[in-house]
Design a protein that fits this description.
Elements (H helix, E strand, L loop, with lengths): L1 E14 L2 E14 L3 E5 L6 H8 L7 E6 L2 E2 L5 H11 E4 L11 H6 L9 H14 L15 H13 L5 E5 L7 H16 L4 E5 L3 H4 L4 E6 L2 E3 L1
Parallel strand pairs: 3-8, 3-9, 6-7, 7-8
Antiparallel strand pairs: 1-2, 1-4, 4-5, 9-10
Helix pairs in contact: 4-5, 5-6
Length: 223
Amino acid sequence: MALVEISNLRKVYYRDSQEIPVFESVDLELESGGFLALMGPSGSGKTTLLNILAGLDKPTSGSVVVDGQEITGMKPKQLAAWRARHVGFIFQFYNLLPVLTAFQNVELPLLLTKLSKKDRREHVMTALGVVGLTDRADHFPRQLSGGQEQRVGIARAIVSDPTMILADEPTGDLDAKSADEILTLLERLNEEYHKTIMMVTHDAHAAERAHAITHLDKGVLHQ
C-alpha cells in the first residue's frame, strides 16, 4: 500500500471573482521508503502541492491520504498535531531563527512534545550527528556556511522521526559542492534510515538522485 495517496486533487485561487486554477485532477502515489523528485517550471504549482501534502494548505477538492489517514478534512488543531508527528519540512532558505543556536533550532519541533529536557537533548544530538554537525551545536546561523545551515534545517526536519520528509528546493540557494553534499545526505536518509522523501526541484541534476521523477506543468502531472 502506498504511504501517500493523492486523488483527484484540484486547487484554485480566486482573485476578486476570477478563478485562477493551479492544478486540476492530480493523482499521485508515493510508496513507503520512496524518494520522488517533483519537477516543473516556476509557477507550475509544485510548492502548492507540497504544502497541501504537509497540511499547510488546503485543496479546493480531492483527497490526500497519508499512512491511511485522510488529512484534507482535519480541523486546524488536528492538522497541527498530525503535521508535528508525520512531516519533516526542508526549506530552500533554511528558515532558521538567527537568535537561536543550531541546537536550539533543531530542538524547536520537540518543544511541542511531552519529551523531557534530557530526551530532547538526546534526540537533537542524534539528529545533528546524522548531518555531521555535533561540533556546531552551539553555533548561531550567522557562524555557519549555507551548506551547514541547510544541514541544520535537515536535522530539524528529522529530529522528531517523521513519517515523511518534504523538501522544497533544498539545494536552490547553495553552490554546487554544498548542493551535492545535501543531496548525498538526502540519499543517505532514504537508503540507511528508510525515510520517505518528496523533493521539489527545478534542477535535473538534483532530480537524478531520486528513485522516480514526475513533472508538473500547466497544472497537469506527467509521470
